[in-house]
Write a structure and sequence with these properties.
114 residues
Length: 114
């Protein structure tokens, strides 16, 4: 699947490069709505800008996805560590109670001997 996605990405890059090369001499009137000016721009520049915009969008989307996964992984590791610590604390309590029981049994045997 990963190879298939890489192949599709490579085909898209080759197609955009071919379209940019074929339309390099073609100019388009672009209207800037902010400054209300019209200027001529090559279609190759527009296609290249769209390509870069797509790359930036993909990188941002990937980063947000990976950071969300990373946060979930950190949260799960903290929960696992908390569970481990609580299990160790429970085992320590059990050992302490067993030691107290042994001490009380020994004291009871001493008391019964007298």
């Amino acid at each position: 699947m990963n190879i298939f996605l890489k192949l599709i990405a490579l085909l898209i890059v080759v197609k955009l490069a071919a379209l940019s090369y074929l339309n390099f001499g073609v100019s388009v009137d672009v209207i800037d709505p902010l400054f209300r000016k019209t200027f001529r721009m090559s279609e190759a520049v527009i296609l290249f800008g769209a390509f870069l915009g797509g790359i930036i969008f993909t990188l941002c989307l990937s980063y947000s996805t990976f950071s969300a996964i990373s946060n979930k992984l950190k949260k799960e590791s903290r929960n696992a560590e908390k569970n481990l610590v609580s299990a160790e604390a429970s085992q320590d309590k059990i050992k302490m109670l067993e030691a107290k029981v042994e001490t009380l049994e020994a004291a009871l045997k001493e008391a019964l001997k007298k």
